Request: fold
Amino acid sequence: MGTKELKRLVMAMAERIAEQSNSLSTIAERNRPNPDPRPLLIGEASNTERSEPFRGLSGRFFADMININLDRLHELFECVNIVPWWPGQLPGEKGDQFRSVVARLRAKSLNVINRRLILVGERVAAAFNIKDTPWMEPVSLGRGESSTIVVPCPLAIVRSWNDPTIKDRASAILSRLARSLG
Reply:
């Protein structure tokens, strides 16, 4: 068996495990009410050495958007990554090697009950089985969350932020969420 066939087999097995990952402990954790009132800002993966979510350019992008500093962003929003480590750059291309299987497993395991979710980018949204949703339009995961929106990823290769209406709407929504907490 060649390397490509082995990789395909491993990925197929991982996909199957991801689909069947509803163990009793996972279900119990997902269904426990979450006492944290902060909105949950969910990104792809940090590309910093310490891998702290939204501590680099993306965090500064959102903090600047709502006129606060980076520490205040982390006080007002619980910031997490859907993939807990940076998977690395795509060889010879723009972008990174996103791990969709890992992302789907993590999405299933997050406790979102009574939470306001901000999913950053299409790949994070896809991990929650959300596809083709317009930016900043409310969407339901059907998992007891109070609200969910999808915003564009703040990378330079994502051109959605060039549309001033998208940036204005995101700024208004994030500012409203920040004001509601403090």
Helices lie at 3-19, 24-30, 57-65, 70-76, 100-109, 122-127, 164-181. Confidence is low (pLDDT under 50) at residues 18-28. The first helix runs from residue 3 to 19. Residues 58 and 122 are 15 Å apart (CA to CA).
